[in-house]
Design a protein that fits this description.
Length: about 120
């Protein structure tokens, strides 16, 4: 019997509100908490996605590990091409290194965190 459940994931960044807006528009999640140092989104599933201000934040490097990525989000999408176009329009960047072939795309969010769009 588990003694804990996952409540959410929090990402370090320089500007919590800006990064939350990016993920809010990409995922449709709703704003559940908004303060200068921390912003949270929810989808009503019991899992939140949080963004906390880190002074002196350094963006992760992809695919290198000079500044480790520490983790990345995998987002399931129905239409990989359409999702990638939206993410790029919202400020994501498509790095050259793409290990997923046609199965997934690696993008970098506006704060430099890698995330994957996965078809299906």
């Amino acid at each position: 019997m588990p003694i804990a459940t996952v409540r959410g994931v929090t990402m370090d960044c320089a500007d919590p509100r800006a990064l939350a807006r990016f993920y809010q528009e990409l995922t449709g999640m709703e704003l559940s908490y908004d303060a200068d140092e921390f912003v949270a989104l929810t989808a009503g599933s019991g899992y939140d996605l949080g963004f906390q201000r880190v002074h002196g934040y350094r963006a992760p490097q992809w695919p290198g590990q000079e500044v480790p990525q520490q983790f990345h989000l995998d987002l399931r999408v129905e239409d990989l091409g359409a999702a990638e176009k939206l993410a790029l329009r919202l400020g994501a960047v498509r790095p050259d290194h793409q290990p997923g072939g046609d199965r997934w795309q690696v993008l970098l969010d506006p704060a430099g965190h890698p995330f994957c769009l996965t078809a299906g």
